[in-house]
Design brief:
This protein has 185 residues and is of the alpha/beta class. It is built from 7 helices and 5 strands. The chain has a 5-stranded parallel beta sheet. It starts with a helix and ends in a 7-residue tail after the last helix.
Length: 185
Protein backbone atom coordinates (compact mmCIF):
# COMPACT_ATOMS: atom_id res chain seq x y z
CA UNK A 1 0.00 0.00 0.00
CA UNK A 2 1.27 3.52 -0.75
CA UNK A 3 1.63 6.23 1.88
CA UNK A 4 -1.36 8.16 0.48
CA UNK A 5 -3.51 5.04 0.87
CA UNK A 6 -2.44 4.63 4.48
CA UNK A 7 -3.26 8.28 5.11
CA UNK A 8 -6.72 7.81 3.60
CA UNK A 9 -7.32 4.83 5.92
CA UNK A 10 -6.19 6.86 8.93
CA UNK A 11 -8.52 9.71 7.96
CA UNK A 12 -11.37 7.23 7.62
CA UNK A 13 -10.67 5.85 11.09
CA UNK A 14 -10.57 9.36 12.57
CA UNK A 15 -13.88 10.23 10.90
CA UNK A 16 -15.46 7.11 12.36
CA UNK A 17 -14.24 8.06 15.84
CA UNK A 18 -15.40 11.68 15.47
CA UNK A 19 -18.89 10.53 14.51
CA UNK A 20 -19.07 8.41 17.68
CA UNK A 21 -18.13 10.99 20.31
CA UNK A 22 -21.00 11.99 22.58
CA UNK A 23 -21.89 15.69 22.35
CA UNK A 24 -23.37 15.47 25.85
CA UNK A 25 -20.10 14.15 27.29
CA UNK A 26 -18.10 16.82 25.45
CA UNK A 27 -20.39 19.60 26.66
CA UNK A 28 -20.19 18.29 30.24
CA UNK A 29 -16.38 18.51 30.03
CA UNK A 30 -16.53 22.02 28.57
CA UNK A 31 -18.88 23.13 31.34
CA UNK A 32 -16.57 21.68 33.99
CA UNK A 33 -13.56 23.42 32.43
CA UNK A 34 -15.36 26.77 32.50
CA UNK A 35 -16.50 26.24 36.11
CA UNK A 36 -12.99 25.40 37.32
CA UNK A 37 -10.62 27.88 38.86
CA UNK A 38 -7.57 26.11 37.41
CA UNK A 39 -7.18 23.18 35.01
CA UNK A 40 -4.43 20.61 35.50
CA UNK A 41 -3.72 18.07 32.78
CA UNK A 42 -2.01 14.71 33.05
CA UNK A 43 -1.24 11.83 30.74
CA UNK A 44 1.55 9.38 30.05
CA UNK A 45 3.52 8.74 26.88
CA UNK A 46 2.02 10.05 23.66
CA UNK A 47 -1.30 10.75 25.39
CA UNK A 48 0.68 12.97 27.74
CA UNK A 49 1.96 14.96 24.77
CA UNK A 50 -1.61 15.49 23.56
CA UNK A 51 -2.80 16.79 26.94
CA UNK A 52 0.22 19.10 27.12
CA UNK A 53 -0.79 20.67 23.82
CA UNK A 54 -4.31 21.12 25.22
CA UNK A 55 -2.92 22.92 28.29
CA UNK A 56 -1.12 25.31 25.96
CA UNK A 57 -4.34 26.12 24.11
CA UNK A 58 -6.21 26.59 27.40
CA UNK A 59 -3.55 29.15 28.36
CA UNK A 60 -4.01 30.84 24.97
CA UNK A 61 -7.73 31.06 25.84
CA UNK A 62 -6.83 32.94 29.01
CA UNK A 63 -7.58 30.04 31.34
CA UNK A 64 -5.21 29.08 34.13
CA UNK A 65 -3.85 25.70 32.99
CA UNK A 66 -0.97 23.56 34.21
CA UNK A 67 0.76 20.32 33.30
CA UNK A 68 1.15 17.96 36.26
CA UNK A 69 4.81 17.32 36.99
CA UNK A 70 6.21 20.61 35.69
CA UNK A 71 8.29 22.56 38.19
CA UNK A 72 6.08 25.66 37.92
CA UNK A 73 2.82 23.79 38.55
CA UNK A 74 1.20 24.94 41.80
CA UNK A 75 -0.62 22.68 44.22
CA UNK A 76 -4.09 21.51 43.26
CA UNK A 77 -7.03 22.42 45.49
CA UNK A 78 -10.81 22.60 45.74
CA UNK A 79 -12.47 24.25 42.70
CA UNK A 80 -9.69 22.96 40.43
CA UNK A 81 -9.99 20.31 37.73
CA UNK A 82 -7.59 17.46 37.00
CA UNK A 83 -8.11 16.32 33.40
CA UNK A 84 -6.54 12.96 32.59
CA UNK A 85 -6.03 11.60 29.09
CA UNK A 86 -5.56 7.82 29.23
CA UNK A 87 -6.63 5.30 26.62
CA UNK A 88 -6.84 2.38 29.01
CA UNK A 89 -7.87 4.42 32.03
CA UNK A 90 -5.60 2.07 33.97
CA UNK A 91 -2.24 3.86 33.71
CA UNK A 92 -0.58 3.10 37.03
CA UNK A 93 1.06 6.51 37.45
CA UNK A 94 -2.21 8.37 36.82
CA UNK A 95 -4.53 6.50 39.18
CA UNK A 96 -2.91 7.91 42.38
CA UNK A 97 -3.13 11.42 40.87
CA UNK A 98 -6.88 11.04 40.42
CA UNK A 99 -7.22 9.67 43.96
CA UNK A 100 -5.20 12.56 45.40
CA UNK A 101 -7.20 15.16 43.43
CA UNK A 102 -10.46 13.74 44.77
CA UNK A 103 -9.10 13.69 48.34
CA UNK A 104 -8.30 17.41 47.97
CA UNK A 105 -11.85 18.17 46.85
CA UNK A 106 -10.96 18.84 43.20
CA UNK A 107 -12.88 17.49 40.23
CA UNK A 108 -11.51 14.81 37.94
CA UNK A 109 -12.26 14.49 34.26
CA UNK A 110 -11.17 11.60 32.06
CA UNK A 111 -10.87 11.31 28.32
CA UNK A 112 -10.48 7.59 27.77
CA UNK A 113 -11.53 4.52 25.84
CA UNK A 114 -13.51 3.21 28.80
CA UNK A 115 -15.74 5.00 31.29
CA UNK A 116 -15.66 1.72 33.25
CA UNK A 117 -11.89 1.86 33.75
CA UNK A 118 -10.42 2.75 37.13
CA UNK A 119 -9.85 6.39 36.17
CA UNK A 120 -13.16 6.56 34.31
CA UNK A 121 -15.06 5.41 37.39
CA UNK A 122 -13.28 7.95 39.61
CA UNK A 123 -13.98 10.82 37.22
CA UNK A 124 -16.79 13.30 37.76
CA UNK A 125 -16.88 13.77 33.98
CA UNK A 126 -15.83 11.20 31.37
CA UNK A 127 -15.57 11.51 27.62
CA UNK A 128 -15.25 8.21 25.80
CA UNK A 129 -13.29 8.24 22.57
CA UNK A 130 -14.08 5.06 20.64
CA UNK A 131 -11.07 2.99 19.68
CA UNK A 132 -8.90 0.07 20.68
CA UNK A 133 -6.52 -0.25 23.58
CA UNK A 134 -2.93 -0.36 22.37
CA UNK A 135 -2.72 -4.03 23.31
CA UNK A 136 -5.48 -4.94 20.78
CA UNK A 137 -4.95 -2.38 18.03
CA UNK A 138 -2.60 -4.57 15.99
CA UNK A 139 -5.38 -7.10 15.45
CA UNK A 140 -6.74 -4.97 12.62
CA UNK A 141 -10.30 -5.06 13.98
CA UNK A 142 -10.61 -1.37 14.86
CA UNK A 143 -7.54 0.24 13.32
CA UNK A 144 -4.67 -0.45 10.98
CA UNK A 145 -2.45 1.74 13.14
CA UNK A 146 0.05 0.50 15.70
CA UNK A 147 -0.50 0.55 19.41
CA UNK A 148 -2.49 3.56 20.68
CA UNK A 149 -2.08 5.82 17.65
CA UNK A 150 -5.80 6.08 16.88
CA UNK A 151 -6.62 7.10 20.45
CA UNK A 152 -3.77 9.60 20.62
CA UNK A 153 -4.73 11.23 17.32
CA UNK A 154 -8.39 11.32 18.37
CA UNK A 155 -7.40 12.86 21.68
CA UNK A 156 -5.54 15.70 19.96
CA UNK A 157 -8.36 16.37 17.51
CA UNK A 158 -11.01 16.17 20.23
CA UNK A 159 -9.11 18.70 22.33
CA UNK A 160 -8.83 21.00 19.29
CA UNK A 161 -12.62 20.77 18.87
CA UNK A 162 -13.06 21.59 22.57
CA UNK A 163 -10.85 24.64 22.09
CA UNK A 164 -13.02 25.83 19.20
CA UNK A 165 -16.15 25.40 21.35
CA UNK A 166 -14.51 27.30 24.22
CA UNK A 167 -13.53 30.07 21.78
CA UNK A 168 -17.16 30.28 20.68
CA UNK A 169 -18.49 30.39 24.25
CA UNK A 170 -15.93 33.01 25.32
CA UNK A 171 -16.31 35.06 22.09
CA UNK A 172 -12.60 34.74 21.27
CA UNK A 173 -10.88 34.53 17.92
CA UNK A 174 -7.39 33.44 16.95
CA UNK A 175 -6.13 37.02 17.06
CA UNK A 176 -7.18 37.41 20.69
CA UNK A 177 -5.49 34.13 21.55
CA UNK A 178 -2.30 35.08 19.68
CA UNK A 179 -1.70 37.84 22.22
CA UNK A 180 -0.94 35.08 24.75
CA UNK A 181 1.37 33.14 22.42
CA UNK A 182 4.99 32.68 23.45
CA UNK A 183 7.12 35.59 22.24
CA UNK A 184 10.60 34.57 23.37
CA UNK A 185 11.05 31.99 20.61
Amino acid sequence: MRTAQYLARIQSELSRVADSISDAEAEALITRILQSRRIYVAGAGRSGLMVRSFAMRLMHLGLEAYVVGETVTPGLSRDDLLLIGSGSGETRSLIPMAQKALSLGASVAAVTLSAESTIGRMADVSVVLPGSPKERSQSGQDTIQPMGSLFEQSLLLFFDAVVLRLMELRSLDSQAMFGRHANLE
